[in-house]
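Example record used in the benchmark description.
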Amino acid sequence: MRKFALLITIGFGMIFQAATAQEIAVLKYKGGGDWYANPTALPNLIRYCNQTINTEINPKPETVEPGSSLLFQYPYIHMTGHGNIFFSDEEASNLRTYLLAGGFLHIDDNYGMEPYLKKELKKIFPEKELEEISTEHPIFSERFKFPNGLPKIHEHDGKRPQALGIFDKNRLILLFTFESDLGDGWEDPEVHNDPPEVRQKALQMGANIIQYAFKN
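Model output (structure tokens):
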């Protein structure tokens, strides 16, 4: 796995932090949205990744706030929810530094967060736009093949699933999965009663995302 090495400014000093651990965290954002949604999703995805793609991720994901220096310990940050999102200027700046320095943010719309998210992303990257990711992108073939792109896990508005991203020098640094609801497919089977084949697709796509984030 690549070395996740970042230069972080804390107070008046400079700390060079290098981490090779395969760890992930949930982003605890402000604004009132339920950042804590799908509590069984990431533990199940972690278990699946550890079993199928040879990761060694801590079974219990940590929680991190967007303005915290602890953000830089994690090569993959997960964000989800249904409602409002708010980043302060300081949080947006910290997220920008994290992403440009090698971090990866996966935002999985649990339904209803899109309009709030797009507004807040402008604080992080005023010069960049979300763009649809080609089905030829390696994230769709890291380990499991998705020749048609992002799988549809749950119906909401009857729209097609979209994988949207923000890139820096051809590296995907932010992934927004929309009208798919991967996280619901990662949850315990009894939560949504999804068929095994639907959950399998969700977990496989999640494993692809994790592997891409750890490699790039």
